[in-house]
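Before a colleague's protein record goes any further, I have to sign it off. Would you go through it and say whether the fold makes sense for this chain? Take the sequence as given and treat only the C-alpha cells as open to question. The record follows directly below this note.
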Amino acid sequence: MDINGSVAIVTGAGSGIGQALAWALADAGARVVASDIDADAAAGTASARAGQIIGRRADASSIADIENLIAVAEKEFGPVDLYIANAGIGGGLGLEIGEAAWDLTIDVNLRAHIRAATLLVPKWVERGRGYFLAVASAAGLLTQIGSPAYSVTKHAAVGFAEWLAITYGDKGIGVSCLCPMGVRTALLDGLTESEDPATKVAGSSITAAGEVLEPAAVAAITLDAIREGNFLVLPHPQVLDMYRQKGADYDRWIAGMRRYQGILEAQILS
C-alpha cells in the first residue's frame, strides 16, 4: 500500500512499538489517530508530530471506543486506510492468574483485533482497499515461557490475521502480522526489572533469545512490509528458523523449550 497520504489508526500508541509506528507513519506522509488507554501518553505521541497525528484516549478492546476512533479519523482526515491493532498486555504468569486476567488479556490481545476488523473490513470491501496490521509476537508462532494468557492470545491473533488475509486478500484488503521477539518496551522492562524470580525467567527467555531491538527499528521494518504487502513481519529473522524447527519436530522442540526454561530457572534461582 502507498502510505503517503493515507489515514491510519494506531492503538497502544502512547509508547513503545505503537508510538514508533505512529511517528514513522506520520514521517512517511500518513495522517494518524494515535490512541492509548493513557490519555497523556497519547497526547505526548501526537505533540511530537503536531498536525500529522491526533491523540485520543481509548480502550482498544471497546467497540464504542473503536467506533469513536474511526469517527475522529473520518472527521479530521478522511476514510481510514490502515488500522494497526497494536495495544497489548502481558496477562500474568502461571495458571493462577484467574478468570478476570484471562478475560482482559483475551479482550485486549485478540477481541480488539476482531472488533476493529468487524467495523472496518466491510467498508474496505466496498471501497476496494484497506489494510489491517495485527501486532502479535514471536510468542504467537512459538510460545512465551511463563505466561499462558499471552501465549494463547498471541497465537490466536496470528490465526485471526491469517483468516483475514485468506478471506479478504482477493477483495483488495491487505493484512500483515508483526511477530517480533525482544523489543525495548515498558512491557519487556516490567519483566526484566521485576524482583519476582518467575517474572525474571519470563523476561530472560526473551532477552537471551536474541537482540533486543529499538521500537523505531521495528517500525521501519514494518512499514516496508506494509508497502510490499508481506503478511509475516519478522524483525528478528531467526524466528522463522525456530518456527520451521518447531513444525519439523514438535516433540523435539517442546523438549528443547523445557531445557531452555530449566537453564534460565537455574541461572536466576541459584
Remarks:
- The chain has a mean pLDDT of 95.
- Residues 7-239 form a domain with the Rossmann fold fold (CATH 3.40.50.720).
